[in-house]
Every structure is written in structure tokens, then in C-alpha cells.
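User: Modeling request: complex.
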Amino acid sequence: MNLPQADEVYDVIMAVDGVTAVYPARAGWQNLAGAALGAVTGVQPPAVLVLPAAGADSTAAEVRTRIGVSSAHRAPDVCRDVASAIRHHCHPLSVTVDVQVAAISGPRRS
Amino acid sequence: MSIPNDNLECGHSLERLSTYLDTGGIPDPQHLEECPECQAALASLRNLKALGSEFLGEEIAAAGKGTDAWMQSILDNLRLEVRPGRTIPLRSDHPGDTLSETEGAITALVRAVGDALDGVAVGKCRLRGDITVPGAPVTLEVQLAVLYGHQMIGRASALRERLAVALARHTELNVAAIDLAVSDVLQPLQATPPTSEENQP
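Assistant: Request completed. Predicted assembly structure:
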């Protein structure tokens, strides 16, 4: 069974109500290396990581992403909605999902 | 405004981001769209620059005079606060999923809530307690400046109320207390007195 394409998963995440951005899901040092590489090659690191689950057969995968959330939506609910949308998209593949809220847009000045 | 030159985790510095706000130039503009820490820092720097223009004057802010010490303390804190920091767990509907928020996202939210309130400027915010453990009691500590002419107690009460709503809405933290300390009163620019020539008939 093929793993889902990262760009497809990206579109699924961005379609969730309240999601304002999808940020690269790598660790800090990898982001730095990726940014440096991207500056040289013009190739940007993927915003969504889709990995085969460690030690599992081809029916399991792991999806990692970081998101920005609109303050008009409740951030924890958006986070759960994203996980659910990813799982729904990947069905019947068994997936574990890692979603981190990295930014919440603030209210406007009163 | 004198900006600390310490880098964020992504490698950018507040100084470079401040220059970007002034000139629009930065080596890797694509990065700004992908980096929540830079976005949070830019939002705060924009607010600080607006505040500086309104209350310090462009020249004074740029020269590092007047109440610039207050600005410097904000910038020093900002460098720490925009970093991802600790991971705050969120309840998941599915076993095996890992859902979370970064501490930096929450402190940026706190700063944005404060900055959105008229008459208030947030100086420093910290989440005290073990935010990595669900249900552990957490205290939010915020230092703020109140702009001259605004009632301190009233502004602090309004801020506390808004912060409580924002934290309840956007986190699953067990917020035991929100401690506010007014550390400064910012005075607006004095009206420039007319020159002697202008007084001439």
C-alpha cells in the first residue's frame, strides 16, 4: 500500500476550518539545514512529513505537521480536527498523527 | 531602537527582522512564511515600532534614548518568548496520536491579547509551572506598561479577563492564577512648543 503524498495531506490540513498555515514539521536543526539548502537550491523542505511507521509493514504510517490556527477557532479543537482529517484521508492505512500548534493568530487592537 | 543581536532558533536575529520591517529586504523571504517564530517576532516588532512612534518619537526610539530601557527589556524577553519552548500536550481523540501546542505559541498569544487592548503594552510574559504535564497548575505572569491617562486597575482587570478567556479557549492548561504587574507608565510625546520664529507676528 502506497503512502499518501505529502502535498495531498497538506491540502487536507489546509482545508480544515481554523487552519491558517502549515509549517515544516522538522526539528530545529533540520529546519536550519533545510533552510540553508533551500536558499542554495531553491528547493523548500516539505511542510508535512509522511513516514512509514518504524518497524511496521507497509500498512502503517506516521504523519507529522505543525500548524497555525486562527484565534476565531478554538486551537485544541482545530488540532483534533486536523488529526481526524488526516486519518480520514489516509484510510484504510493505519496512521499515527503528530500535530503541533505553532502559532495562534492574535486578536486585533480594540 | 537598539535590537539585541541574538539569534532565534531558526538562525534569524531580531535585528535582521527589524531591518526587514524597515527596508523590506531579507535574504530568504520564503522563510518568513514558514517560520512561526519569525512571524511572532515580526508581529511584536511591528507593535513595538508603532508604540515607539506614538510615545517615544521615531528619532528618540532610533537613538536608544528616553524610555528605551523599557523597550530593551521587551526585546530581550521577546527573543526568549518567540522560541518554541516547552511542549504543551493536548487531549487526543485517538490513542497513539500526539497533539500539542508550543509554549511560544501561547506566549505570543498572550502578548497579542495584551497588545490588542488599548492603553496597555505587554513587557514580559512567562508560564510558571510544569506545562508539559496535563492538569498541572500553571501561573501566567505578565509585566505590563500602562499608557499615561489610562486607569491602571481598570486596564489590568480588563487584561486579566481577556487573558483568562483566551487561555481557556486556546489551551487545556489548568490556569491557577494570572499575575499582572504594572512595571511602567508610558507618557506620550510632549507637544512640540512653538519656536520663537513661529511666535513672531
